[in-house]
Structure formats: structure tokens, C-alpha cells
Fold:
Amino acid sequence: MSTNSSTVGQLLLQGSACISWKQDVEGAVYHLANCLLLLGFMGGSGVYGCFYLFGFLSAGYLCCVLWGWFSACGVDIVLWSFLLALVCLLQLAHLVYRLREDTLPEEFDLLYKALYLPLQVPLQTYKEIVHCCEEQVLTLATEQTYAVEGETPINRLSLLLSGRVRVSQDGQFLHYIFPYQFMDSPEWESLQPSEDGVFQVTLTAETSCSYISWPRKSLHLLLTKEQYISCLFSALLGYDISEKLYTLNDKLFAKFGLRFDIRLPSLYHVLGPTAAGAGPESEKGDEEVCESSVSPPQGTPTSLQQTPPCSPSPAATNLPAPPSRARMSRPNSGILEIDDFPLISPFGFSGKVAAGRMP
Structure:
């Protein structure tokens, strides 16, 4: 250890090995190269930090090549500087390739930011979903039909990107579909993977529309393979169907002036087609359903019917008579007329709930 320290001390005491120092400073290219290298080594992290770092280093080493070729006249300076500049340029090319590989088309990028990014879905997972639809954006012209009632098979799942789609049944308007909503989520949920079915509604484009579509078999294969994507689609489809249900509930309120609870299966018996020809017994049942599920708002005419007094027992002869009970009579003003408001069975296909298509 003492021998090494003595050797270093001797070298320092001997002074510089240079016989003579140059009186002239190096040219501007040499100083520019060092400034660029200094700026390059001040670069940060991340993708754009790497672009900054390798960009300035490439320019600095290229200036060193020029300085070694024209001023220093040293082959080793030229070769090493050229090699370092080449490595930095290759790293820049690799970064550009990675960025181009991660870039999505504009429509899919907007879809990711609007629907998947708020759920913190990883970009790589989103790419698998996009790859399943083959990265194709389909279009619908104005008044072009996406599905025809009773004819179009349920063989895909589509998501509207732009425009507006009208949903109708037997020529009766049901609701609209807006951008970033599924076009056929009720039909998708109504069938098992091994089952086949057709649309019960007609979907018509009211404006020029664009949408993406996943083939049924390919999407089922992806959902079976990836549990995370399966849970993601379950949440998105459930939210989409609930939004359609709430829209239809507001439509019922606007038409009838009464707010129905769409979760009640008995609502179908009140408004369904079987109530039109059911006779007095069904009307009595409908009245009882109306009494139990809705309450008349202020200003709604109601008829008071006195309940027949029951025979008092000897022990309760002095008790007051039971109060009369207000009860809604079946209106004749068309509030619950079936012909004015046709609807689809809420039980949908094969006894399953086809929610979202009940007006």
C-alpha cells in the first residue's frame, strides 16, 4: 500500500509529461462538442428524457468526429467518436420504433381516454381488446340499419364511437344510443355462448355513425382466456344496461306522469300485451299492482271507495269504524292504455332478462 502511494506521489512531483503546451486553443467545433455533451448528460428519465439525452449525445459525438478529422488529426479520436455517435443514433431509432408500436389510431386513442383510462386499464390490456376487433372502425350512413327486428342474428357486440342510433320496436321509438355506449348489450347478455338468437328491436342510424364491433366467438374466447378482461366487460355491460333502464324509466315518467319502479316484474303485467284481453280479473289484478307499486301524484284524480264494514265483534262494538282507504280507479284517460305504448317482454330471450329494451 505504501509502495503504491509513493509511486503516485512521484508521478505528481515529476509534473506533466507534456514537453510543450499548445499556445492556440482548439477550434469552435471542439467546444461545441463539449457543450452538447454537457447538455446531453443533464437529461432526465422517461421516454422523452431518453430522447433528450441520446439526441444531444449523438450531436456532441458527431462534432467530436469532425474535430478529430479536421483539427486533431487523430484516427483513434475519429473512430471512438464515430462509434459512440452510432450507438446513440441506434438507441434513438429504437425509441422511435417503440413509440410507433405503442401508438393507437385516433379513434381508439379517444376511446381509451374516455372509457378505459378512468378505470385504470393497462394499455397492454387495452391493446388485446382492440386486437380482438381487428382495429377496424365501421361506419353507418344516415338511416342505415344496424339490426332489423326478428331478422338480424346476434353474432357480435358493438360500441358506438360517434353519431346517434335510434332503437325502435314495431315502429315505436324506445330510446337513443349515444357515443361510447354499447349498441347491443341487452342482446349480448341475453344469450349464452352456445345459444343463437335474433334481435327483438331495430337499430337505425339517425346520423352518420362510426362504431367498432367484436365478433361473438372471438370475444367469448378472449373473455374465457383473460379473467381481468372478462370482469372489465361485465362491469361495462352492466353499467350500460343500467343506463338504458334509467333512460326508459324517465321515459315512462314523462309519458304517464307516474314514476314506475322498473325493477318490479309486475310492471310487465300492468303494461304488457296480455293485459289488453285479460278481462275483469286481470283488470282487478292490475289495479292492485298500481296501488302497491305507484302512488298518485298531486293533482291526479282519484276516487274514494268505502270499504264494506265488517260485522263488529261483541268485544269491539264501541270501537270507531275503520277509516276508508284511498284507492286508484283504473283511469279512462289513456294513462295505461296498451295500444299507445307497446313494449317488449322484460324477460327477453329464453326466459332471461333482456334488460334495457323495455320501454
About this structure: Confidence is low (pLDDT under 50) at residues 263-356. Residues 227-256 form the longest helix (30 residues). The longest strand covers residues 156-162. Residues 26-102 form one domain.
